[in-house]
């Protein structure tokens, strides 16, 4: 490491990507580059000789505080690849992986990728011009235009200290993005102020942080469940769990914001009026929210690299640009898991399923509940995995479209209703519904495949929240509330649909 002139510090020229200088790694990576370049040039069918890799490797710039990674000149390109064959798409994906590029979104029709300045000209020369458009011309400029409020933890967080004003949905919590400590503090404020909310830790990360869950339910045996016609009373045998997890991917901040918004709005509505629909839902379902299932990565995305995706587990990978390359949690679940080759890759899914502390903890929770000794007593009806971005609401399977779930028709029907409920909110956006393999691209070892096929959760969905690429992961804070509204409306619709379809028979 060596310091350069302010305001930036050149931290490292890491050989993770394009042929870094130096004897050993250089030749191997040059080789890798040429393989990748060959794959990309297959898109255009060009016979031209392959260009040399850039002279330098990945340059990681830090802000003047020496902590935050900068993305000056980084661009997000969108490849319009609806017309490309699967083979060519695979080539491009593999090439992007080999080059250590950061894939933002891969669907069946579009491919968004962040390209650092050093790689731009060489990739331009390899890809047909009409295939590529520059979607975000300068990632750092976008980050600077929507600075994250770095507000300190207000108050001392004591029991009576409603620092977030949780008695109203107007709480300032929903107006900005927050650190892990602040998210946890907000969750504990819900526990303090609403006796229908409890919290517990479902596991611990590689760096020792707790993975916290908040559950809300109403125990009132004598009160009818959902039906507004005063239907049958429900006993413990008719109660179910509805689980929401978010922020598997560290940088997808709006996912945990929306999860907490959903929980908050549900609890507020239920406590304001015991006959409300929200209260009726809470008599049938225990809603459990694991808002930040990847606390280490989330913290790292706040404190160092805003665009960090994986967890922070040490998996070797000494040559990666980051000191601890981590595991992509949403490739590490134990159904149709595929081991990864490249530890530096943004989609590195680990060597074995559930190698990541976080996926292991969450899977244990799905199987055993909050009391592993007693085992799970509350059957799970729904498991929702929140991500951003792309505005999609998807059912299994993600790993392959050849595997069609027996419940597909019902899952599609409910999903269409969810999308409609989301769109019908005040500022609602359109969401696409379908099978995950169809709407996204590579997703082996996906959470919802595991929850559906192994944990036997029939209503398993994953959602890509706002937006469709204008801001991508850098969604401005003023869009947190509308996204939270959409998620709240969609999940309430789903819970009601499940109740009507298979509980209130
Ligand atoms: Zn994600």
UniProtKB/TrEMBL annotation:
Residues 176-498 form the Peptidase M14 domain. Residues 1-19 form the signal peptide. Keywords: Carboxypeptidase, Disulfide bond, Glycoprotein, Hydrolase, Metal-binding, Metalloprotease, Protease, Secreted, Signal, Zinc. Its cofactor is Zn(2+). The keyword Transmembrane helix does not apply. It is found in: Secreted. One of its GO terms (cellular component) is extracellular space. The active site is at residue 464. One of its GO terms (biological process) is proteolysis. Inactive carboxypeptidase that may play a role in cell wall organization and biogenesis. Belongs to the peptidase M14 family. This is Inactive metallocarboxypeptidase ECM14. It comes from Apiotrichum porosum. The lineage of its organism: Eukaryota, Fungi, Dikarya, Basidiomycota, Agaricomycotina. The gene is ECM14.
């Amino acid at each position: 490491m060596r310091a350069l002139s302010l305001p930036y510090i050149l931290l490292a020229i890491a050989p993770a990507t394009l042929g870094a200088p130096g004897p050993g790694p250089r030749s191997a990576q040059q080789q890798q580059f040429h393989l990748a370049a060959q794959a990309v040039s297959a898109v255009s069918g060009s016979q031209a000789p392959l260009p040399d890799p850039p002279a330098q490797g990945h340059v990681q710039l830090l802000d003047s505080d020496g902590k935050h990674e900068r993305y000056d000149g980084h661009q997000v390109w969108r490849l319009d690849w609806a017309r490309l064959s699967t083979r060519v798409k695979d080539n491009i994906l593999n090439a992007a992986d080999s080059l250590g590029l950061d894939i933002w979104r891969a669907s069946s029709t579009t491919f968004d990728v962040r390209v650092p300045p050093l790689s731009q000209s060489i990739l331009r020369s390899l890809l047909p011009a009409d295939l590529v458009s520059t979607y975000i011309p300068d990632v750092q400029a976008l980050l600077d235009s929507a600075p994250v409020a770095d507000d300190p933890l207000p108050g001392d967080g004591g029991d009576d200290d409603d620092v977030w004003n949780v008695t109203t949905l107007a709480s300032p919590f929903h107006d900005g993005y927050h650190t892990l400590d602040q998210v946890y503090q907000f969750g504990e404020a819900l526990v303090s102020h609403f006796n229908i909310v409890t919290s517990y830790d479902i596991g611990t990360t590689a760096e020792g942080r707790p993975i916290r869950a908040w559950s809300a339910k109403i125990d009132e045996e004598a009160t009818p469940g959902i039906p507004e016609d005063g239907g049958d009373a429900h006993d413990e045998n008719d109660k179910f769990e509805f689980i929401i997890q978010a922020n598997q991917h560290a940088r997808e901040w709006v996912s945990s914001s929306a999860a907490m918004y959903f929980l908050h709005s549900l609890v507020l509505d239920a406590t304001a009026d015991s006959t409300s629909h929200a209260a009726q839902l809470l008599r049938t379902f225990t809603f459990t929210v694991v808002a930040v299932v990847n606390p280490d990565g989330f913290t790292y995305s706040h404190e160092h690299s805003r665009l960090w995706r994986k967890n922070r587990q040490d998996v070797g990978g000494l040559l990666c640009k980051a000191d601890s390359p981590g595991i992509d949690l949403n490739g590490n679940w134990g159904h149709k898991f595929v081991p990864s080759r490249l530890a530096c890759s943004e989609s590195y899914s680990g060597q074995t399923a559930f190698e990541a502390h976080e996926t292991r903890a969450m899977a244990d929770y799905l199987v055993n509940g909050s009391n592993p000794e007693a085992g799970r007593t509350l059957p799970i009806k729904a498991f929702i995995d929140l991500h951003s971005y792309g505005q999609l609401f998807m059912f299994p399977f993600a790993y392959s479209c050849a595997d069609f779930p027996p419940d597909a028709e019902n899952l599609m029907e409910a999903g269409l209703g969810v999308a409609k409920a989301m769109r019908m909110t005040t500022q609602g956006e359109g969401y696409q519904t379908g099978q995950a393999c169809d709407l996204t691209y590579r997703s082996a070892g996906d959470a919802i495949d595991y929850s559906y096929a192994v944990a036997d959760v029939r209503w398993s969905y994953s959602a890509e929240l706002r937006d469709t690429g204008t801001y991508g992961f850098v969604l401005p804070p003023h869009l947190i509330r509308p996204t939270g509204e959409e998620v709240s409306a969609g999940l309430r619709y789903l819970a009601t649909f499940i109740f009507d379809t298979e509980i209130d028979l």
